[in-house]
Amino acid sequence: MKPRPNQRLSSQAMAFVLAGGRGSRLKELTDRRAKPAVYFGGKTRIIDFALSNAVNSGIRKMAIATQYKAHSLIRHCQRGWNFFRAERNEYLDILPASQRMDEVNWYRGTADAVAQNIDIIDSYGITYAIILAGDHIYKMDYEVMLRQHVEAGADVTIGCLTVPRMEATAFGVMHVDKSMRITDFLEKPKDPPAIPGDPAHALASMGIYIFNWAFLRDLLIRDMQDDSSTHDFGFDLIPHIVKNGKAVAHKFADSCVMSGLETEPYWRDVGTIDAFWQANIDLTDFVPKLDLYDSAWPIWTYAEIVPPAKFIHDEDGRRGSAVSSLVSGDCIVSGSAVSNSLLFTGCRTHSYSSLEYVVALPQVIVNRKAQLTKCVIDRGVEIPEGLVVGEDPEEDMKWFRRSEGGIVLITQDMLDARAKALS
């Protein structure tokens, strides 16, 4: 399919979302769900950000590659992302690893996840393929990046974060010339190269790639036949293109969507308990770093039909209140004090309990007189009456998972084990 000059580039592109990862650093939060399916921000899931960016950018053809414990993710996409209409050339295909190429291999790497679905992508009739990770929090207009890709005549355009130079030691770093052409790709370098003209900063890969589909298709077929390859974009394909083709860096700041309230481009990998907790709690700030209230760039999701939140009891010491907090629909704050916290859909907090800096996933019940501080509570957990968490680190670690940053993760299995041990 040849590009049409009278069309937005996004209408000639597809988004291929890599959503198969477990996210093991999130510990028990990903015991039953893949990282992209983890809840975020009160009512969304992590994958909703990549999908919403694509829709808001004008992309109407998408595929989601799943692998690890995908049921929760697939169900969410079926319920919340089922508005695409094939008769309008709109598609959202969910592509579980299904040994489509042979009876031995599941998805062997990020590039292999795309390669095993070449025939499906061919059927879309696209010109450009945008490869996305499904596990980051950010707002980005991919049309801007597409325009740079076409204008530069690049084989691949790579989305890059501008980070303080010495913080880039934890990333894959792009060494670029003045035209933003990538001359070298360095994995977690001890002395990261600076951006030309900006010695204090370096360019770190976001794991977002734009290719002409015909070019990527040929590259994937060759890679599949290479037994020495790990079939990964970052380890195999991108270094090959940097060496033998034309790879161009795209600064996230050029396409980041900001409503006017955000003061700097916002991108987060919420891949640890500490990072997940912090990014959620950041949303409770007076002026949060990420504006979820921007109706011009909505974050789409499965919108459950639930009643409004309710606050009851108004007595000293037993007042249903929430301050500097996000409280989702179907929550009942009953005679309890909630501060600097985020309650997902369907939570219940009962009399004389207090929650401070707590992230409670959907359907959490906090019983009377519980005192919770700096916690992440998994979906459906019932906190027993009088439980105190966040005051005694040694007591917390005896029953729950306590992160390096002092955040306590509570699951129902942990509470059941505690109850059995104390009985």
Key features?
423 residues, alpha/beta, UDP N-Acetylglucosamine Acyltransferase, domain 1, nine-stranded mixed β-sheet
Secondary structure layout plus pairing:
Elements: E1 13-18, E2 39-40, E3 44-45, H1 47-56, E4 61-66, H2 71-80, E5 91-96, H3 110-115, H4 118-122, E6 128-133, E7 137-138, H5 142-152, E8 156-164, E9 172-176, E10 182-187, E11 201-212, H6 213-224, H7 233-244, E12 247-251, H8 252-255, E13 267-268, H9 273-282, E14 310-312, E15 314-315, E16 318-319, E17 321-323, E18 326-327, E19 332-334, E20 337-339, E21 342-343, E22 348-349, E23 354-360, E24 365-366, E25 371-377, E26 382-383, E27 388-389, H10 393-399, E28 401-402, E29 408-410, H11 412-422
Parallel strand pairs: 1-4, 1-6, 4-5, 8-12, 14-19, 17-20, 18-21, 19-22, 20-23, 21-23, 22-24, 23-25, 24-26, 25-27, 25-29
Antiparallel strand pairs: 2-3, 6-11, 7-13, 8-11, 9-10, 9-11, 15-16, 28-29
